[in-house]
């Protein structure tokens, strides 16, 4: 009986044209509006080169006093201009392959082999996408503490378990203080991402609100009207003595921009007849090109990635990679550190 191979059950052209079952657009980050995509970002991701320049218009200076009209024909008002800034982002050129001699047999046993493969690979890429978002968020936090006096951070965490109390844990007071690091832009906070340990504290305080659709189905939970996103990839740092400190992230709409490019060969099945002592091995490759960038920051291009092209998760999380280029109130991010 002939052996079923990956190349027998996958039509590469069909595979890459199907919508992702579990793509980034299916994450809570996307659904909450924290991450937004646009044709501009997609075009930049598809453009030539390793970097993308993301232009933006600076706001009109509200502190610049108005002119006062007169009837003097010899006196003229002088108009002011509006300046454009730019954020610089490096693209991520990523790929992953799955190779095994018995993988095709395992997959072909199911009635929907292609959907099974797609679900597995899409989930993997979705998780990597979320890890890149959190890594970049950690880098922004590190940069803010190192270079901007921590003006986006409210930290109540104790360094030792013996010093922990209700004031060092998640609370409405701590949340409000963190949100108001945005000043009069505080209403822009629409979601909060927390570690499951912090989510458990919120649940014990009975402070989570259920948000349901018209049929009564639970859509998500909210805190003070802000959507709660639970992700154990958020930072957990050991205290200097014992215990742990948890970072929660307050987001506003468009905190991150996302663009997806199209690699030359997004999906490929590779056949190596000699591998497996001649038994043959096939590998399924997935490739993607991403721009995933926090609004209001640029990447410091002198901090070149080690491989020359794409930043790793560890590199994204470093302070040296980021530089804020807009006023603090225009950055829809804030951080709360608790026990």
Percent helix among the residues? 10-25%
CA radius of gyration: 24 Å
Largest sheet: 8 strands, mixed
Q: What structural category arises from helix and sheet content?
A: alpha+beta
Give the integer mean of the pLDDT values: 86
Note the run of SSEs as H and E: HHHEHEEEHHEHEHEEEEEEEEEHEE
The stretches of 5 or more residues where confidence is low (pLDDT under 50) are: none
Q: How would you sum up the global shape?
A: globular
Give the count of helical stretches. 9
Count of beta strands: 17
Strand-residue proportion: 25-35%
Number of spatially distinct domains: 1
End-to-end CA span? 61 Å
Question: Can you give a write-up of this model?
Answer:
- This protein has one domain (6-55, 86-338).
- The chain is built from 9 helices and 17 strands.
- The chain has helices spanning 6-9, 12-17, 28-31, 39-46, 103-108, 113-147, 172-179, 196-204, 313-316; strands spanning 35-37, 51-57, 84-90, 92-99, 153-155, 191-194, 209-212, 218-223, 226-230, 236-238, 244-251, 256-261, 267-272, 281-294, 297-299, 322-324, 333-338.
- Strands 5, 6, 7, 8, 9, 10, 11 and 17 form an 8-stranded mixed β-sheet that branches. Strands 1, 4, 12, 13 and 14 form a 5-stranded mixed β-sheet that branches.
- A hairpin with a 2-residue loop joins strand 8 and strand 9.
- The longest helix has 35 residues, at 113-147.
